[in-house]
């Protein structure tokens, strides 16, 4: 086996891989340009003033997920806030979620004056562990907010059953997992709970720069989310506002790009899956590391690699081979951010984490979710993934993984 590049050897790859930050790693084309010009030529950029693109986008999203309703918004965080607002928690009510997520998941809970309660995760997937979720249920639990991490479906069947037994709502954060499925022939994620939430941010499978989408099978939930996105203004009835709500409207420019991008989504996911299957076949069993299985179910937002230990060594070695890799994904579990450790919420009040309205004063110590903490601190390595990878790109990634696994295993021995 050749010497690792990090130790002075020759790297596997010397040219950059396509990424979502350059044209080679995106799927924009003539249709998006035409859609943007259609909006500009029509002069109506605000979707509340009319135009076809928002309806087109929402209808496509609903059809892709086999549900009757989709609601667009200005960002993925906004979509999550719509979902939390739709279940209408009382101040201090609790929503159980994961510490391994983007802060947008948590911001939606706090912004609606509910308390995030953190459950631990599976040590190989990073997805919520239903047993840990069950242990966090209380009389104040209002919902479970599950995140489908890195493109893998969380155990939503079990979580939906748990939510039903507890009489609480299930909300799905699907920002990283478009069209992922928990099992063959199962419905896609986003359709198991009261609301499924999606993001159109730059780094997602398809993008309009920013933007959000919610799907639901419940007409009343869809109506409340639609109202919440428009300051609770029932425009057909007059100029008044039914309840406290915000402006999370999507513009027509965003909707136009997103509508065309969403038509490309099935092909984007299929190409990511096809190349992931090629990679898994090429690398086989990696010593000291675990890759996702079932490429046909995974959405492959990124390529998560869980190593036995020493994730920084793996990330440094892979990056030196020309395959950029990041150790831990997050700097810390979200409950160790200053918003929680310093209670920086509304002024210096600590609201809603203090009692009242919470049932107790909430603190989030180190060690709260040890499996999530170990992933961040020692075992999780994240590599980028892209639908525009050529076979040669995938083969280079496979070669780098194989080389690094062998080299680090030899060093450890």
Question: What's the average pLDDT?
Answer: 97
Rg: 22 Å
Based on DSSP secondary structure assignment, what is the total number of beta strands?
11
- Per CATH, the architecture of the largest domain is 3-Layer(aba) Sandwich
Can you summarize the main beta sheet?
Answer: 7 strands, mixed
CATH topology-level fold name of the largest domain: Aspartate Aminotransferase, domain 2
Structural class: alpha/beta
Q: What is the total domain count?
A: 2
The level 1 CATH classification of the largest domain is: Alpha Beta
Strand content of the residues, in percent?
A: 5-15%
Protein name: Glutamine--scyllo-inositol aminotransferase
Keywords: Aminotransferase, Pyridoxal phosphate, Transferase
Active site: 204
InterPro entries: DegT/StrS_aminotransferase (IPR000653), PyrdxlP-dep_Trfase (IPR015424), PyrdxlP-dep_Trfase_major (IPR015421), PyrdxlP-dep_Trfase_small (IPR015422)
Report what the structure shows.
The chain has 413 residues and is α/β, with parallel strands linked by helices. The protein folds into 2 domains: 125 residues, Aspartate Aminotransferase, domain 1, CATH 3.90.1150.10; 234 residues, 3-Layer(aba) Sandwich (Aspartate Aminotransferase, domain 2), CATH 3.40.640. Helix content is 37%, strand content 12%. The chain has 12 helices and 11 strands. The strands form 2 sheets. Strands 1-7-6-5-4-2-3 form a 7-stranded mixed beta sheet, with helices on both faces. Helix 4 links the parallel strand 2 and strand 3. Helix 3 crosses helix 7. It is globular. The mean pLDDT is 97. One of its GO terms (molecular function) is pyridoxal phosphate binding. Its cofactor is pyridoxal 5'-phosphate. Belongs to the DegT/DnrJ/EryC1 family.
